[in-house]
Each structure stands twice: as structure tokens, then as C-alpha cells.
Amino acid sequence: MLVLSRKKGEKLLIGDEVEIIVIEVDGERVKLGIKAPKGVKILRTELIEEIKGENKAAFDLSLKAFEEIEKNIRENRDLK
User: What is its main location (predicted)?
Assistant: First the structure.
């Protein structure tokens, strides 16, 4: 990992097309501006983790529903 110190207004370049600009520093918060081509995805990792958690919860719920349906089918077969 590369660690850099930057002041307000300073920039850094990633490759030839992505530019990061320090917009504001306020205590422990830093505002960054990012210039990148439209095809470059810029994602906040906390949102990715939240989406992964929601997807896992939805899968677990679907699996539980499927298991309940399977159980009901078996019980109905046994009644015949």
C-alpha cells in the first residue's frame, strides 16, 4: 500500500485517467474529488459490504423458505 500526505488542493494521478483531488480537510474527515472516465467504477467499500450482507440475508431467507416448502411436500406425500 502506498501512503501519501496531501494538502487541500493537491492532486494525485492513478494511471493516465484517474485524478484524485483533496477538496477539503476538516478534522478527521477528508473530502476528495475524483475525475475518472465514465467506464471506471468508483465504489465505497462500506456500501459493497452492506450489499453483500443484504444479499447473504436474502439468500438465507430464500433457502429457509425452500426448505419449508420441501418439508411440506414430504409431509403431504406421507399423508397419501
Answer: cytoplasm
